[in-house]
User: Fold ATP synthase protein I from Rhizorhabdus histidinilytica.
Amino acid sequence: MAANDPGQDPESVGDQRLTSLDERLQAAQHAERVRTASVHKKPEKGYSQGNRVLAELIAGIVGGSLLGWCFDRWLGTKPWLLLVMLFLGIAVAFRNIIRISQERPE
Assistant:
């Protein structure tokens, strides 16, 4: 029935239109939830482990180098403490990477 029918009550036409609009809105919200469900999933365990491994590797190398450089400047032993601390940082990084790789999945 058309909205301009003289025999139809204007309030019932408005109610029908609101009901129709509500149904379409619910359908669109459901479709959006289905579409974005895969986007908002928690990242896989491997992805977060990879980030942790990368952070450990970078932190070990940079941290060891920085500490060695500071001790070298303070004690005047260039470049020996830098080299020693760099290799210590690499060893600590590899130890932490091995620990991360041996963690059990949740």
